[in-house]
Amino acid sequence: GTTLAVGAFAQAFPSKPVTFVVPFAAGGPTDLVARQLAEAMRKPLGNNANIVVENTAGAGGTIAATRVARAPKDGYTLLVWHIGMAATDSLYKKKQFSALDDFEYLGAINDVPMTLLGSNKLNANTYRDFEAYIRSNGGKLNLAHAGLGSASHICGLMWQHAVKLDKSMTTIAYRGTGPAMNDLIGGQVDVMCDQTTNTTSQIEGGRVKAFAVTTAKPLSNHPILKHYPSLQEMGLKGFNLTIWHGMYAPKGTPPDVLKKLNDALKVALKDPEFIKRQEELGAIVVTDDRVTPEGHKKFVANEIAKLKVVIDAAGQYAD
Ligand code: MLT
């Protein structure tokens, strides 16, 4: 019968490599969490699982999401994406997928604060200096981001809107904040808002300047990031942005396979080594209640509603 066939399929899963599709370039924060998670999930997935990471960058993550939404419904092609899953819902007028209808939700992975960074070439060392500098400069700055709907884009949008400089800045889209970081270090761009998982070591190494963190409160427990104020403390009332990542399979993937993947994800998120690596970079691995299909889907639906307000306020959309 059908039940037996599905059970037999799940027992054999995985019998070939599982692909984590990452919507941004290698060397950035989404790539980092996917690669660390791939290591942590290998054992719990069983069958001597082989997990490969594929970087399908472009259009703020929507190309990768479309690829996974249309992939075979067998659990071998999974999407590891962040807040863009929710942001692109109202940002993109034409999309090839639906965030809520075209995926099986496996669970959330982590929460990640962001930092507002400047190039070492900028004539400012603190957030107050920086704001004074850009105002005296007529707001002329180049802001790097990873495409419309990326976390760096959403953060940049919120910050420009909050400081009322949205009309004067030039934004430059990269295939990920990994490559964008190289240009910030080189001084080809002036400013970028990016996840602590990509910025902490660069801040520590003095290769970029950190001005502020995007969480409501400063990150007082982190040895490096505790030195920076929150944007809210710097006068940007209500500014509070945390990025989260999640994992998704194509809609219609067999329930037994989904259960195997969800169980393995849960175990991986308890791996002390994975937790330590994430925490060193300012991220927090989520608790079990968010590693359920229902829990994560409810969370994303809520994020879609919240981000729609932010995006409509900025009034900039992607085609
Ligand atoms: C983002 O800005 O959305 C991410 O940092 C992109 C990336 O992972 O490169």
Could you give a quick summary of the protein structure above?
The chain has helices at residues 2-12, 29-45, 62-69, 84-91, 127-136, 151-162, 177-186, 196-204, 255-268, 272-280, 293-314, and strands spanning 18-22, 51-55, 77-81, 103-118, 142-145, 170-173, 191-195, 209-213, 242-250, 284-285. The chain is an alpha/beta fold and 319 residues long.
Question: Can you describe what's shown?
Answer:
The chain is an alpha/beta fold and 319 residues long. Helices cover 41% and strands 19% of the residues. It has eleven helices and ten strands. Strands 1, 2, 3, 4, 5, 6, 7, 8, 9 and 10 form a ten-stranded mixed beta sheet that branches. Helix 2 links the parallel strand 1 and strand 2. Helix 1 runs parallel beside helix 9, helix 2 packs across helix 9 and helix 6 packs across helix 11. The longest helix has 22 residues. It is globular and about 65 Å long. D-malate (MLT) binds next to helix 2, helix 6, helix 7 and strand 7. Belongs to the UPF0065 (bug) family. Keywords: Signal. InterPro entries: BUG, Bug_dom1. This is Tripartite tricarboxylate transporter substrate binding protein BugD.
Report the strand count.
Answer: 10
Q: Averaging pLDDT over every residue, what do you get?
A: 94
Low-confidence stretches: none
Oligomer: single chain
- What order do the helices and strands follow? HEHEHEHEHEHEHEHEEHHEH
Enumerate how many helices there are, as a single number: 11
Organism: Hydrogenophaga borbori
Keywords: Signal
Family: Belongs to the UPF0065 (bug) family.
InterPro entries: BUG, Bug_dom1
